[in-house]
Design a protein that fits this description.
Layout (H helix, E strand, L loop, with lengths): L1 H38 L4 E4 L3 H14 L11 E3 L4 H10 L7 H7 L5 E5 L6 H12 L3 E6 L6 H4 L2 E4 L5 H23 L1
Parallel strand pairs: 1-2, 1-3, 3-4, 4-5
Helix pairs in contact: 1-7, 2-7, 4-5
Length: 188
Amino acid sequence: MKDFIQSEFFSHIDTAQSTLKLLVDDISKACDIMIKALKAGNKIMVCGNGGSAADSQHFAAELSGRYKLNREAISCVALSTDTSAITAIGNDFGFEFIFSRQVEALAKYGDVLLAISTSGNSANIIKAVNVAKSKGCSVVGLSGKGGGELNACCDLNIVIPSSNTPRIQEMHLIIEHTICDILERELA
């Protein structure tokens, strides 16, 4: 058991080092995109499925509440939180539309969509990205496993260099926390 625990931690550390070496510029670009939108009075929308839905909610909560600093709320909406909308849209249109219909309703020109998909191929995330783009939003993706379809439709897709779902999700969380910290300091 101890060997397994150690191997998990070493796997995390290896993935973190690879991510940092490859993606520090992309993470910085994502921050720039979001800062520009927020300073112009726009908002960030976030979507993801499963653990990525939880990350979406976590990210939005850190911005609308606080991450480390007491400051004005930062406009961020997690599209995974309105169970009435999700279930109505899923029932009436299909699960693949649960985020795109919300983007259609909420997005304004200049907003940002943060689209989180471990595989980069989630149909409901891709549909949300396409609607966001059609409404003049910037789109930042967080993915892994080569980036999938998000590579072709995002303005910037931050692709974790791993095929291991838990490692990808762990890197997404540290990237999300880093973005929260930077946005908070830039906008406080």
